[in-house]
Amino acid sequence: MLYFAQWKVLLILGLCALGVLFSLPNLFTPAQLAWLPQSVPHKQVSLGLDLRGGSYLLLEVDVAAAQRERLNGIVDSVRKALLDEKIKYAGGPNVEGDAIVFKVSEPDRTEDAKKALAKLDPDLAVDVAPDGAGKIQFNPQALDARRSQAVEQSIEIIRRRIDETGTKEPTIQREGKDRILVQLPGLDNPEHVKALLGKTAKLTFQLVDSSVTVEEARRGHMPPGDEVLPSEERAGRGGQSAYLVRRRVMVGGDTLTDAQATFQNNEPVVSFRFDTAGAKRFGDATKENVGKPFAIVLDNKVISAPVIREPILGGSGIISGSFTVQSASDLALLLRAGALPAPITILEERTVGPDLGADSIHAGAVASIVGVVLVVIFMFLFYGLFGIFADIALFFNLCLMLASLSLLGATLTLPGIAGIALTMGMAVDANVLIYERIREEMRSGRSMLSSLDAGFTRAFGTILDSHVTTLVAGMLLYWLGSGPIKGFAVTLSIGVLTSLFSAILVTRLQIVTWLRQWKPKEIPL
Amino acid sequence: MMRPLIVIRRVPKIDFMRWHRLGFAFSILLGAVSIGLFGTVGLNYGIDFKGGVLVEARVNPGPADLAAMRAKIDGLHIGEASLQGFGSPNDVLIRLPQQGGGDAGQEKAITLVKQALGEGIDYRRVEVVGPSVGAELIRAGALATVLALVAILIYIWFRFEWQFGVGATISTIHDVVTTIGLFAIFQLEFNLTTLAAILTIAGYSINDTVVIYDRVREAMRKYRTMPFRDLINLALNETLSRTILTVSTVALAVLSLLIFGGEVLKGFSIAMLWGIVIGTYSSLFIAAPIIYYIQPNRRAPAREGREDASAESSRP
């Protein structure tokens, strides 16, 4: 039984060699690695943000807001559809929660209303009760599709915005249904990025309605199709605190092809250029409204409201407002990257400075090395030669762990380092179980070889059970944990698997070789 | 030939079962205190779970004037901030309670604090957790713990008779509950890493129990007429040196983490250290004696899966 087939020996040795080979790159700095020839493995363990420093942001896309906005856009067509069919309605149509509600005045025309509205949009589910109460909602499939679309689109926009800031190696990924995880290595002050991500950056050009004043409109004389928007203009420069504007959008920011921060009369401004369609619409609108003011609206706030002196046909223009150099360049960046389909909230932020990261690596490394050295000495004290066998297996276990982490592209976090240290302590448990068992078999009077054999065989079941239970805990942690904890789960689980290999096979191979070469008369246990 | 320097030559003959009633009483007391404290005083949840803001700041040049910094932050009226030294005299850990205004409210507070403290401060770490994430993390954490226990129970049940599964589960729950108790008594911060520690403890404790149960089962087959009490004692004594050695190696690793691993890992290391001690204790004085009370049927044909499996895979 204490015999290894040739191919098995080769397999074990080969695995150990690969482990050493693929863990080696971790001993070098990236500069040294670049100098090495291409044929040598280069992959290093990637460090988590808590070790290399950087920012971790968990964002949530406010899908409900996007949906509300879309319903707002539909309200007009609902009104029109009802008017076209000459269906009288009393209440609404208004957006309430996630639905448009209205009330048909003549109960015998509910079916007509239903039919007319059903034609509006296949994504809408129209329901009109016999008493005339109507409700229009998105159907669930459409809602899911929209949600997905909004999140994917947000990721794209966020990526563009972050790329524009020049942050290196950002990771932006979808998390769950409506969340986005942004990881920005090396960024220790994310305030600017956060400010950029927090803005929807929805730019519109809308006509200002001067037929009534803002005060009158607020007092209830709101002309239909109008809205009052607050202004961001500085007081005392002829600006107002709010404007009454037409809801209808002349041109939207989605038609912009470029935006740049520049100066006009020594003031920071943002210049922009429309695409062909946008240029035409803007040209037409300005031609029809010469002499009237229009509002440049960003995220429902009026940036400025210049008067149209002449038709703007060139397809480009300038936004002036109360900009600083920074805010002008930010706005230009946001306009270039495009508007978010829905507002975004920051749910979680974790930022670690680079020197704390370096301190953590140092502390983790020292703790691991001290731990390993102590365990190595301990095993030698208690098991002598066999302890050294276990220590050699432990060394290969460490190499295999690092190699697996490097090859899998797993992220090493500070809790992950703790996981490595802990695994080193636990890995020798398998050796302890085997050696104790061998001792017992010897005590019960078995021969040397038979004791060795029985030790390995009988301890195996126990080792398997104890490893599986730890593996179960590790996998659950990986599944349910987040960030650094996932790192711990990864190292713990990998460590359990590699230790199963090293503590059993590598140790056994050493003992078998020792038996063959030295032909000992007894076991030094 | 290199012989071990330290050897336990003989199998000890300790009457563990003599102490099991005391052990039960002690554990019930410990468990009751833990649950009581958890219910009344509660845990000192970190921001991972309750939301809020945590800032690790290094004052240059130090040392940090905690009182002055506290006064500046209190002036902001953003709830009761807690400041404490963190490792070196230059380092301060600032915690702010969860802010109003939902997830966005937390972000505002951090900007205010940075403005109030002014220049000369290096923000080494900033963590902001909104209330909605905190609640989710609590749920995920509790779920992970319960699922881990259930999964382990199922595994044990699959490999052993159900009585062993019950014993292992009770002793593991005991370890988890008393670890939570430890955090309640000393009001140590309970955060995500603590939770990771608790799950690892569960895994480790079960590991210890399984080794002993394995031996109990083996003895059950070998000595069909031996009284159960003696059988358990025998199993415990036979595995005692393994128990001590394994506890020692893991404890060595954890101790070096506690001493050298830095402030961030302190909570994790403390939890782990306690977990190994209590896990070992519970394997000896809870898990093993429980089997005495709910005895597996010795006549029933023992499940042989283990022996077959091991023979299979160790064949060259």
Oligomer class: heterodimer
Distance between the termini of chain B: 27 Å
Global outline of chain A: elongated
Distance N to C terminus of chain A: 20 Å
Give the spatial strand order of the biggest sheet of chain B: 3-4-2-5
Spans of chain A of 5+ residues with little confidence (pLDDT < 50)? none
Structural features, described:
The complex is a heterodimer of chains A (525) and B (316). Chain A is an alpha+beta fold and 525 residues long. Chain A is 53% helix and 20% strand. Chain A has helices at residues 6-23, 30-35, 49-52, 63-84, 110-118, 140-165, 191-198, 214-218, 276-288, 325-337, 354-408, 414-443, 448-480, 484-518, and strands spanning 46-47, 54-61, 94-96, 99-103, 124-128, 133-138, 171-175, 179-185, 203-208, 226-230, 242-252, 256-264, 267-274, 294-298, 301-304, 316-319, 344-352, 411-412. In chain A, α1 (6-23) packs antiparallel against α11. Chain A starts with 5 loop residues before the first helix and ends in a 7-residue tail after the last helix. Helix content of chain B is 65%, strand content 11%. In chain B, α6 runs antiparallel to α10 and α7 (192-222) crosses α8 (228-238). The longest helix of chain B is centred in the middle third of the chain and has 31 residues, at 192-222. The chains are: A alpha+beta (525), B alpha+beta (316). At the A-B interface, β17, α11, α12, α13 and α14 of A face α4, β5, α5, α7 and α9 of B. β17 of chain A pairs antiparallel with β5 (121-129) of chain B, so a sheet runs across the interface.
